[in-house]
């Protein structure tokens, strides 16, 4: 006789709920939420960005502002397209979808952080204080000006050549927002930058860590040489006039810029007297003559009588 055996099968079903593909808070993943900024107090130009990391469990959202903000894969970021120069601040908040209840899950399901970055939104400016625009200045002088910026200056250049450097190349963050770097005087000898035909036009720009000022075109005449003058009549070799009855004094004059004024001193060494333009007089006298036009020309004086 066959015996009947009753067999009982116990099937255990473990239920693991999912929401949006992420495990809800349970004993294995219950953690305090946290959020932080990874580029705090960084120095940027526009468009600038702030961002960081967030930690927690469950489905999450991050809200932040101002700016165009978003979050994904435990990283959040905000893009700032428009802002004045200076310290820019905002706030980012992380919301964890933790559905378990204490004591299975920690109570902190929300975390916030204030984010901050420095923004440089405006290019620097540059000006020339000396010499005046369209003036004439000797090459021994210096060109002097001022540069300014709302955050910090790095350098000034004239004709693409470095004039002055105000901070080290790695100083953008180290020397951030210092008042002594927002306005500086600069100077450069004209002998270092002046060459070519007159009048000369100089291109001057100032720089900060991100921008260059609009090019300033500044023009003036640089007088690089002293004028040169010769006396060709009477001849110094023969010590005589070509026509003694018609004593004309003449010669040649030149200058890189142009001749403005000319004078003659005609002295009778024997009688210790000078010609004043119409007669001889005791002591000194100066005769003015017409300066030749242009940068080089012949000149003459016909007012001397025999």
Model description:
- The protein is an all-beta fold and 306 residues long.
- The protein is 1% helix and 46% strand.
- It is built from 1 helix and 26 strands.
- The protein has one helix at 171-174; strands at 18-19, 22-23, 34-37, 43-45, 48-55, 59-65, 68-72, 75-80, 86-97, 110-120, 125-130, 136-138, 142-148, 155-158, 161-165, 183-189, 200-207, 216-223, 228-233, 249-254, 262-264, 267-268, 273-275, 280-282, 287-289, 296-301.
- It has a 5-stranded mixed sheet, with no helix packed on it. A 4-stranded antiparallel sheet has the order 3-5-8-7, with no helix packed on it.
- Strand 22 and strand 23 form a beta hairpin.
- The longest helix is centred in the middle third of the chain and has 4 residues, at 171-174.
- The radius of gyration is 42 Å and the shape is rod-shaped.
- The model is unreliable at 7-30 (pLDDT under 50).
Assembly status:
single chain
Mean pLDDT: 84
**Largest sheet properties:** 5 strands, mixed
Side by side, the strands of the main sheet go: 12-18-17-14-15
How much β-strand is present in the residues?
over 45%
Which range best describes the helical content: under 10%, 10-25%, 25-40%, 40-55%, 55-70% or over 70%? under 10%
Task: Kindly name the structural category.
Answer: mainly beta
Number of helices: 1
- The end-to-end distance, rounded to whole angstroms, is 173 Å
What is the ordering of alpha helices and beta strands?
EEEEEEEEEEEEEEEHEEEEEEEEEEE
- Rough outline: rod-shaped
Q: Flag low-confidence runs.
A: 7-30
